[in-house]
Amino acid sequence: MSNPGYGKRSVPDQSPRTNHDFAHLAPREAAIAAYIDRLPDGADISVKTLAKHLPYGQCALRTALNRLQDAGHLRRGRETLTADDGGSRWITRSWFSRTARDDAWWTAFTRGDVPEPQPSQRPTRSRAHILLAALGRATPALSLSEADCAQLAPLVVEWFARGADEDVVRHALTSGLPSPVHHPAALLRTRLTQKLPPPPAPRPPRRVLECATCGLPGRPEALPGGRCGACRGERAPAHSNAPLPADTVHARVAEIRAAMTRRREQAPL
After folding, report:
1. CA of 1: how far to CAs of 9, 104, 143, 187, in Å?
2. Using 50, 70 and 90 to split pLDDT, how confident is the model at 228?
């Protein structure tokens, strides 16, 4: 397995596994693809690591992975990961698809236009339990037993999963209380259920693909088959004296910064 957040990442909406998934590939590439397909997400699928487990040298594996890219099974690049504190950072990804995809599909995937399952990001039970247990200190009428907190905590967790913080939940539970409160656990269960906010709209991740040969980041349409024009042997277009649009300049600067960050992260200490 690679470091947390890195390594293989399976793409969504793949066909069920069969014995003929890679029959269209040459025997070596088919064997390597079948091996990678059965690895769990997060597995290290770098050339160096694969060479330790497969009967192929690093040069042969590098060639095979490039051919898997050409066949639409593999793309390598970077993606933003949102931290618990709301910040984000760029991490290296190696996306693998058992089902061969064309360049148009990978372009849509990079934009976040391909539906994919949302990972469960529920907070821990202790956070919800602590909030419920603390209600009685500020509002004695809402004092709960240990069993009450354990039963109500999953409902509070659902609020957290939908973007509510402790202040929002506390206000929903304590504002406008009747007097007296005969059954605090029953009252809180009703409020947690009936006032539950709607789930937030999912935001697609930001992704950047990289050339498999030189590592240069670029837009998906500039990397057909996973390689840039220079590495495919194409001649660079003649330069124009016309100034580039501002959005093009900003996009290029972002790509260069991402490449510099990647090199710093991968540089030996």
Report:
1. 12, 30, 46, 47
2. confident
Rg of the chain taking only CA atoms, in angstroms = 25
Exposed, middle or buried by CB within 10 Å (0-12, 13-18, 19+), for 71?
Answer: buried
Looking up tokens 């939940």 gives 169
Residue 124: pLDDT band with limits 50, 70, 90:
very low
Please check the confidence at residue 6 and state whether its pLDDT lies above 70: no
In this predicted structure, the answer to whether residue 239 has a pLDDT above a threshold of 70 is no
User: Which among 237, 264, 223 has a CA at the least distance from the CA of 76?
Assistant: 223
- Beta bridge partner(s), residue 133: none
Which helix or strand (DSSP H or E) is residue 156 part of? helix 146-161
Both tokens assigned to 49: 């690591």
For residues 185 and 232, what is the distance between their CA atoms, to the nearest angstrom?
A: 67
Tokens 């599909």 -> residue: 105
CB of 149 within 8 A of CB of 126?
A: no
Nearest one of 54, 79, 63 to 26, comparing CA atoms: 63
Question: Would you kindly state where each structural domain of the chain is located, as residue ranges?
Answer: 8-118+203-266, 125-194
Sheet holding 8-10, edge to edge: 8-10, 88-96, 74-82, 207-210, 217-218
Q: SS3 string of 129-148?
A: HHHHHHHHHHCHHHCCCHHH
| Residue 66 pLDDT > 90 | yes
Q: What is the pLDDT of residues 18-32, one digit of tens each?
A: 888 899 999 999 999
Residue 216 DSSP one-character state: -
- Residue 43 gets the label, from left (phi > 0), alpha (psi -120 to 50) or beta, of beta
As beta bridge partners, residue 73 has none
Q: What pTM value is reported for the model?
A: 0.48
